[in-house]
Every structure is written in structure tokens, then in C-alpha cells.
Amino acid sequence: MTVPFSQQTQRQQLDVLRPIAQHACAQFGIVPVSLRVVNHGFNTTYAATTASGARYALRLGTNSLRDAAGLAAELQWIDALATDGRINVAPPHKTATGQWAIVLPVAALHRAIPATLSHWLPGRLVGGRPSTAQLRALGQTMAQLHRHSAHWSPQGNAAFPPVNTLWMNSTESISSSTHPSVTPRLRDMVAQAIGQMTAVYAQLDQQFAVQPIHADLHGYNLMWHAGQLSVFDFDDAGLGWPIQDLAIASYYVRDIPGAEQHIRAGYTQVGSVPAVSDAVFETLLMARGVLLFNDVLVIESAGERAFIPEYCRRVELRLEHFLTSGTFALLQ
Questions:
Q1: 230: which strand partners?
Q2: Pairing state of beta strands 222-225 and 228-231?
Q3: Is 213 helix (H, G, I), strand (E, B) or coil?
């Protein structure tokens, strides 16, 4: 009997995906002499190097929630940003037939997944402990993204989904989860927090207009090279509010003293930070935590699934702190 993909080990999963990745490379017209896995989490990314030394990033949407219209919008935006030149992004690479993305069936997943290829970004990942210079560059880049998207929209059949909701592109899965680590106490705290978040999102909907946002700006989606910041992984991009990008970026650095101030300082060099109360901003931070928790519960990658019990423990700590203090803390 075949073991379901979600129950396979990481090595088994990568063995399943490797021929898919090789087939995708052929569709994009490249013949890699090296095809190395650099990430296998929500999605799966390979570093592909050809005989000439050209390097590319091949991305398989292993757990992607993108539909065709959303993926087209994502790639159009990246291409527009690359053409504009003020923000460093990885230009997408087209197939021999002029497509930016292909869809490949994966029998083990019982569905087809999208694949994209982009030029390789030089440098190193910013990671979880960004420097002051990197934080300020993140703020500047974020503001430039917002300035660009305020006057840009996808064309043709391309369309971004709305992400100005708690669940963004996801389907709520916490209430139906049967994982033993999702305890009744944890479910109750999530429900209490969602009540507060729903009110905040309704308030923001009256205050701000939506526009394309990245929606996943953190150190593992940023590269640093020669003092310059580059942005990648637009898989969560959609129609939201700029304040969401600021909250999402702040979520990951909440435990670094002064980090959020450096991001805001960089942002104000380009534009004004959207004005919201401290209570609203703290709620957006906790909302990010709830969304990540929701997504972790249904992800199929082996390493992420093994982390669920520990993640549940951390989420419970963070929710308890938020519900009693009204502030978010990245408690471990």
C-alpha cells in the first residue's frame, strides 16, 4: 500500500518531487548540471545551475494556494517591478512557448502543482536576525512596493485574490483539526482572539483601500548582496492594506529590540506609515500568528508536520499573553 505523501519522510517526498522538478526544467528550456534543494516547506525550491554557469531558482508550488489568475498576477507584478528597477527582484523566466508558469500533475499529491523559474538572486538570506541596515532597507523596500502597487494593476485574466482578511488565501482549518496538540483550551483562546480580530479587520476595511501587497515580508524572503536588499517569494501577494505588510514584517522581529523602529524609519524615508492605533497593530501581529498556526495544521511537508506539537505550545503562550495584555509577544 502506498504511503500518503503527507505521511512520507522528507527524503521520500523529495524523491517524489525530483523528477517533477527535472521535467519542469525541460519545459523552461534549461538543462541543469546541478539541481539542488534549497527549501522544502510550504513550497519546494531548487537551485538549478546549467553547464554555462547560469543559475536559476525553480519553485514547485507543493502546498501553493494560488489559482491561475493569482499566479499570473504575481508574475506580472514581479516582471513590472524588475522593469521599473527600483526594487531588486528575481525576473521570471519564460518557457519555450512564452509561458511564465506551468502546471504539472503529481500523482502522489492527487493534484497538479504550479512551477515557475526565475533568475537566481545573488547574496545571502537575511534570515531571522537582520542587521540595522537590513531592517532599514526592508522598510524602504516595503514603502517602494506600496508606492509602485498603488498605481499598478494586473492585466488580462490575471487577478490578485483579496488578502485583507484573517485567513488571507487559506481556508480556516483550526476548528476541524483532529491533531491531538490542538487542545480545547487552545481552540477556546483562538476563538476569543478571532472575535477581536474580526472587529479590527472590519475597522480597517472602512479606513483603507486595498492594493497589491507582498504579504510575506520576512528575513527568509529577502536576500542581501553588496549592501542591497532583494525581495522574492510573492506567493502570498494579494489585495490588502499596506499596514498588513508592516505588521507581518514586525511579527518576525518582535523579539529584537529596536527592530520595528528601524523598519519604520526606513519606510518613512519613502512615504508615511499608515496610521493605526497601537491596539489595532498588536491585533494584526497576533492575527499573523493565528494564520501561520492555521496553515501549519494542513501543510504536507514532513518537516513542518513534525513541528506541529511545538508550534501549538508556542501559539498557546502567545495567545494567552495577547488576551491578557492586549499586546503581542513572540514567546518561545
A1: 88, 223
A2: antiparallel
A3: strand
Residue with C-alpha cell 512615504? 271
Q: What angle do CA 274, 163, 219 make, to 5 degrees?
A: 70
Walk me through the domains of the chain, giving residue ranges and CATH numbers: 5-124 (3.30.200.20), 132-325 (3.90.1200.10)
Please give the torsion angle defined by the CA atoms of residues 134, 74, 21 and 293, in that order, rounded to the nearest 10 degrees.
Answer: 70
Half-sphere exposure of 11 (CA within 13 A, CB side): 0
Q: Which of the 8 DSSP states describes residue 160?
A: P
- How many other CB atoms are there within 10 angstroms of residue 278's CB atom? 9
| pTM, entire model | 0.93
User: Along the 332 residues of the chain, how does pLDDT read in single tens digits?
Assistant: 578 888 899 999 999 999 999 999 999 999 999 999 999 988 999 999 999 999 999 999 998 888 999 999 999 999 999 999 999 999 999 998 999 999 999 999 999 999 999 999 999 999 999 999 999 999 999 999 999 999 999 999 999 999 999 999 899 999 999 999 999 999 999 999 999 999 999 999 999 999 999 999 999 999 999 999 999 999 999 999 999 999 999 999 999 999 999 999 999 999 999 999 999 999 999 999 999 999 999 887 777 788 899 999 999 999 999 999 999 999 99
CA angle 288, 89, 230 (to 5 degrees): 70
145: which 3 cell numbers? 512596493
User: What is the three-class DSSP state of 119?
Assistant: strand
Burial classification of residue 232, based on how many CB atoms lie within 10 Å of its CB (0-12 exposed, 13-18 middle, 19 or more buried) = buried
In angstroms, rounded to a whole number, what is the distance separating the alpha carbons of residues 329 and 225?
Answer: 31
Cα angle: 204, vertex 206, 209; to 5 degrees: 80
